[in-house]
Write a structure and sequence with these properties.
- The structure is a single chain.
- By secondary structure, the chain is α+β, with helices and mostly antiparallel strands.
- The protein has four helices and 13 strands.
- Strands 1, 3, 4, 8, 11 and 13 form a six-stranded antiparallel beta sheet that branches. It has a five-stranded antiparallel beta sheet with strand order 2-7-12-9-10.
- α1 packs antiparallel against α2 and α2 crosses α3.
- Pfam families: CIA30 (PF08547).
- This is NADH:ubiquinone oxidoreductase intermediate-associated protein 30 domain-containing protein.
Amino acid sequence: MTVPPMPPGAAPEHSQLFCRVYRASRSGELGKGRAMGRALVALALLHVGAGRPDGLWGSVKMVDELLAMARDQVKFEIKNHKVKFENRGSKTQGPPGQAQGEDLVVLATFDGATGTTYSWRAMNDPVMGGRSHSTFEVEGSEGHFKGTCAVVPFLNAPGFCKVGTQQSLFSPPPHFANASRFSEGALYLDVETTTPEYGGFMVAFGATNAKRPGGAMHHSAPSFKAGFKVPGTARTTVRVPFSDFSVDWSDFTGRCDTKDPNNGYQHHCCSAERPDVCPRADNLDKISSLEIWAEGVAGDFDIKVFSIGAGPLKDHQGPLMI
């Protein structure tokens, strides 16, 4: 089997990873569909081309994580194609607009409701050389995310686990409900946790028109991120003000107030002095992804997510409902 050349700038030690992923895609290990398997090699190319410390990319855990991601993506693409085929004769619908009165918009649920139910996928830092691990399962009408955020050896700092909405390689990103009228409000998280002491919970959302400042190293599309705390073990609605989110967060820490160790780039949080990193109303009208993170703090975590929405900063009583 002839393996295509490595991408420009890739280090020699990356070749084993690339060859394994490529051969798996050709042999069918990643699932049925040769064209789809080849397309998923782009995932390996992106990671391989990024470059990392010597020996890191030879990690078996990293390769297994990448292969698991690729297999999951193939399953998602097959399911997505099947749904499109079944709905090809149905009337085209506009973007979702689930709202309850004038004080709430629901972005995501796990109850199968049309327009707010999405496919989610977990990813851990072994793709970057770490040792964190997590699982995500939809149980009834809740998404259950749990695992352990561990220290990344070469950074000597905690890594990350995350779960996010899944996106097709062959279709535009999902279009969530329009939350622009709450640009001065907050993101609502209807959650329950058995680990309220865990201090590394974060939430992020992408937007098709999001832009971030240059100068820092990044391995994903721009997104707005903020930390949050769950006050106890009872089910509750956590409100994360949109003014807490910043598009200028560090890939090393997940935070917007730290300096990158590789080049000294100083990140910035949303403020009156730096409005360019704050989410705007037009970003909230173009939300394209949602993510829950456990990042930057070593330890075990366990959180159930019932729904994600947006609303005013004032208290919202009761769970989010469509």
